[in-house]
Amino acid sequence: MNQEPRAIFKYPVATTLLTIVLLYTVFTELMLTGFYPLPKPSVLYTSFCDVYNNYPLKEGFLDTFLLTTVALTFVYLFYKIFGLWLSYIYIHLPAIKHLSNFYKYIPIVFFAGLFIILFDYNYYGEFLFLVMFLIVQLGGVLIKSIENMQQGYFEAYKSLNMDQNLFVKKVLWKGSLVEIKKSLPKVYHKLILVAIGYEYLGLSVGMGKIIKLLIDLQDYYGLFSVMIVMGIYMFVIDRLLDFYSYRTRFWEL
Asked: Measuring CA to CA, which residue among 21, 52, 24, 32 is closest to residue 219?
């Protein structure tokens, strides 16, 4: 009789991370006490407390969190409301794909510098920059999804003599919305990195500013501890977005 696996092994990513943390703690705290390239968890904890007390860490984290969350929510709702019409436009004007690919040949740093110059290191400039980035990213997901489904369902669409607009509405758009939802965790990872990079260059707000200060002061333990906290934060958001995507994607079909 087969037994159900223990609950902890149902979550391999969490189990792996927990194992790494435990091994890292044991080796650095108890066994490799003289191996300084690996900082002890106690040292990292102390460094993080110093960063929390001496830097505007709460404000920086909230700035980055709010800007990225609001930008992602805004662009996602934009595509959910207007995505069907954008699908119609792409079906009737497929050449628009070539226009949407031009950004691949221009470094994103160029656009970041342009927005920093135009908006002088404020929230509005960063928000607009993140919105532009997300529109391009999710637009690419929409176009790729439509192309893939056109190839897969083209013969069925022709054999059923289905109206093209109905085919776009009932098949292409609904399938594309599912793909957009599935892409949200990956897109959010990119968004966080882009936001931190923008803040680092602009020296204005957010976690990018904190990272810049830590590097300038050569507080590498503090920097490493902040990176760990940001990694945990991104992991939690990834799980939440993945849960939302999994629970709602089939409602659209």
From this structure: 52
CB-CB contact of 210 with 55 (8 Å) = yes
Q: What is the pLDDT of residues 57-68, one digit of tens each?
A: 888 888 889 999
Closest C-alpha among 53, 14, 26 to residue 225: 53
Who's near 241: CB < 8 A, 6+ residues apart?
A: 184, 185, 188
Q: Residues 7-51: pLDDT tens digits?
A: 444 445 556 666 776 776 666 666 555 555 667 777 778 888 888
* Cα 47 from chain centroid (whole Å): 27
If residue 190 lies in a helix (H) or strand (E), which one and from where to where? helix 173-202
User: What is d(CA 85, CA 89) in angstroms, rounded to the nearest whole number?
Assistant: 6
State the pLDDT at residue 204.
66
What residue ranges do the domains of the chain occupy?
1-38, 40-252
Residue type, 235: F
Class of CATH domain 40-252? mainly alpha
Which of the 8 DSSP states describes residue 169?
A: I
